[in-house]
Amino acid sequence: MKALIQRVSSASVSVAGECVGEIGAGLLVLLGVEREDTREIADRLLDRLLRYRVFADNEGRMNLSLADTGGGLLLVSQFTLVADTRKGLRPGFSGGASPQLGEALYDYMLEAAQRRHAPVAAGRFGADMQVSLVNDGPVTFLLEMS
């Protein structure tokens, strides 16, 4: 499982011109699910997302987490994160989860996030989405779990 996290001042996701999720300051998380991923991996990744220290403390150091700040979490599925781009001129997706597994783990992670944190917003799995964001910093990290 891969999560591209971006510290944002604000972010939103729209489907067919309708805003389906938005947050103020917090984290935009683009989530890619791989074939071998499980609920246990999703739980570990969510714990890391909520506790990953990417927000500045009073001295300007990245010592605070989303759990510390109470910022928003916007979760958006993005299967292209799991593409194999090591060679050639076209990405390969054989390592990606099936649509059924991807949606099940995305939904599981979203429900778990909503139980553990607020506010939480989300995109729509499998939809053609438009994501808007103001990247704060910019601060972007790729978290990988297996």
Automatic annotation (TrEMBL):
EC number: 3.1.1.96, 3.1.1.-
One family name in Pfam for this protein: Tyr_Deacylase
Reaction(s) catalysed by this chain's protein: a D-aminoacyl-tRNA + H2O = a tRNA + a D-alpha-amino acid + H(+); glycyl-tRNA(Ala) + H2O = tRNA(Ala) + glycine + H(+)
RNA-binding as UniProt keyword: yes
GO cellular component, one term: cytoplasm
Signal peptide limits: none
Any GO MF annotation of the entry: Gly-tRNA(Ala) deacylase activity
SUPFAM superfamilies found in the cross-reference section: DTD-like
Subcellular location: Cytoplasm
Chain ranges for the short sequence motif Gly-cisPro motif, important for rejection of L-amino acids as given in the UniProt record: 137-138
BP GO annotations: D-amino acid catabolic process
Classification via Gene3D superfamilies: D-tyrosyl-tRNA(Tyr) deacylase
Superkingdom, natural source: Bacteria
Keywords of the record: Cytoplasm, Hydrolase, RNA-binding, tRNA-binding
Function per UniProt: An aminoacyl-tRNA editing enzyme that deacylates mischarged D-aminoacyl-tRNAs. Also deacylates mischarged glycyl-tRNA(Ala), protecting cells against glycine mischarging by AlaRS. Acts via tRNA-based rather than protein-based catalysis; rejects L-amino acids rather than detecting D-amino acids in the active site. By recycling D-aminoacyl-tRNA to D-amino acids and free tRNA molecules, this enzyme counteracts the toxicity associated with the formation of D-aminoacyl-tRNA entities in vivo and helps enforce protein L-homochirality.
Subunit organization: Homodimer.
Domain remark from Swiss-Prot or TrEMBL: A Gly-cisPro motif from one monomer fits into the active site of the other monomer to allow specific chiral rejection of L-amino acids.
Assigned protein family: Belongs to the DTD family.
UniProt name for this protein: D-aminoacyl-tRNA deacylase
